[in-house]
Amino acid sequence: MKEWQFQRDAIRTFRFVRCGFDPANGIARLVYAFDDGPELVETVTVPGAPFVLDEARAAAAERALRLLHLIAGVSYYKAAVAPELRIDGYAIDAATAALLETIYRNGLGEFAYRNGLDLHDRIRFPHGDATQAPVPALGLRAHALVAIGGGKDSLVSIEALRGAGVDQTVTWIGGSQLIAACAARTGLPTLNIGRQLAPQLFDYNRQGAWNGHIPVTVLNSAIMVFAAVLLGVDQVVFSNERSASYGSLILAADGSVTGEVNHQWSKGWACEQAFGEYVQRHVAADLHYYSLLRPLSELAVARQFARTDRYDAHFSSCNRNFHILGERPVNRWCGVCPKCHFVFLALAPFLSKPRLVGILGRNLLDDPAQADGYDALLEYQDHKPFECVGEGRESRAAMAALAQRPEWREDALVERFVREIRPQLQAQDLRIEPLLVLDDQHRIPPRLWERLREAFAA
Ligand SMILES: CC(=O)N[C@H]1[C@@H](OP(=O)(O)OP(=O)(O)OC[C@H]2O[C@@H](n3ccc(=O)[nH]c3=O)[C@H](O)[C@@H]2O)O[C@H](CO)[C@@H](O)[C@@H]1O[C@H](C)C(=O)N[C@@H](C)C(=O)N[C@@H](CCC(=O)O)C(=O)O
Ligand SMILES: Nc1ncnc2c1ncn2[C@@H]1O[C@H](COP(=O)(O)OP(=O)(O)OP(=O)(O)O)[C@@H](O)[C@H]1O
């Protein structure tokens, strides 16, 4: 028989073949296929096996596993954007289909924009007519699995939870040594969940698969929800800030806005709300998924981060550290990507200059070669980069604050801002203080928020 070949444009169907979990070794297998091609098997390994689950928890684990199977399929679906989606092993209801359509359509927004694809009417999850009744509570114990990503945001959450006396396990997915070092530095219990993508994906990429960004935060969230059920804990905490809800405005040649594309859609409020509500209604009624930093802007997070130097020699927000394949920056910060640019700028108003330059190893604001990168952050002659960076108004306000500081104002890019960009802006739009005000749109448990609000406001 002729061997199956990946031919992107000839593929008709993307199949969710089956998923399974072995409680004896903690390995979940998520299986997919294109048409009648080979099975693509992704594995997720949760430490702590063997897992002994009572009937109610085993049923919840199966529901969480299916949710993960359906969400993690996005990595493979994108390779061919097949016209038809098929779920072979089980049926889903309309609420599940609606959640998945939201996640796939929005979470692949940047992917679609960059590849010139219109996925809106293409992504339809087949579902039955029956509506699932809300699921019961499992009697989960009060404990938080807190996601750690190696950058400043999750470290702010971890320290805030520590201050509020919340029991937590610092949890990450994948084999990053940088994240492992940050996690160790917290001195808290840790959990490292293994994840292996199906190896064929990399072959398909070489054979012309569609490629681009996927909604990785909601995928990591689904992995952690699954782990929380296995471990019997009642909270999954992420550190997605308010600014993540705002995308990049796409401009036409005449400068008019033609649309918005959010690289970090799955870090945004709409995704947190939809996913968190679904988990409570369809996985376990007492499992709370929330972002502790939702009320904060990036600048407010930066201000909190500045309060301790405990992680200065360990953390990095530079995403170039996190490639599965390929090179990583030698000293944790590449110094030339949008995240390095933004984090340097966002921390500058709140950290001493020697401390900040010591962390990144150089002064990015005194390097004229970085002007284009900073222009994009400022939304000056360009759109905000497709990266996890703050809003344009935050970058402009941070730059304006530095322009007032003797230690910064003569640096090349601050001086250029004063000369070339600031004259085109309104002074009242350049104040930092309004951007530090806490928002009240979040899913943080009310009693915890009462304890944290004051610390975050100061
Ligand atoms: C590290 C990174 O930024 N990767 C993005 C990059 O991928 P690249 O090819 O340069 O390297 P790899 O990450 O090693 O990926 C290899 C291929 O595998 C695909 N893939 C990877 C993980 C996965 O879960 N599913 C996959 O299909 C990937 O597409 C590659 O073909 O560029 C890609 C295309 O734009 C991005 O998709 C890669 O982003 C990773 C999925 C990733 O983990 N990125 C995070 C560092 C990230 O962007 N985090 C955001 C959160 C945004 C969100 O939730 O949407 C953040 O920093 O806040
Ligand atoms: N490998 C991972 N495993 C688990 N959670 C992760 C992983 N990578 C990122 N996250 C989580 O995803 C969310 C978004 O990641 P993001 O990179 O914005 O945060 P960060 O690394 O804490 O800070 P920074 O924005 O400075 O990079 C955070 O809650 C982070 O903890």
Mean pLDDT: 94
Q: What percent of residues adopt helix (DSSP H or I)?
A: 25-40%
The ligands bound in this entry are: ligand LMILMEGD, adenosine-5'-triphosphate
Order of helices and strands: EEEHHEHHEHEHEHHEEEHEHHHHHHH
Residue fraction in strands: 5-15%
Outline the biggest β-sheet.
Answer: 9 strands, mixed
Total of DSSP H or I helical runs spanning 4+ residues: 16
Any idea what the shape is? globular
- Low-pLDDT ranges: none
User: How far apart, in Å, are the first and last alpha carbons?
Assistant: 69 Å
User: What is the gyration radius calculated from CA atoms?
Assistant: 22 Å
Order of strands across the widest beta sheet? Answer: 4-1-2-3-7-6-5-8-11
Integer tally of domains: 2
Count of beta strands:
11
SS-based class: alpha/beta
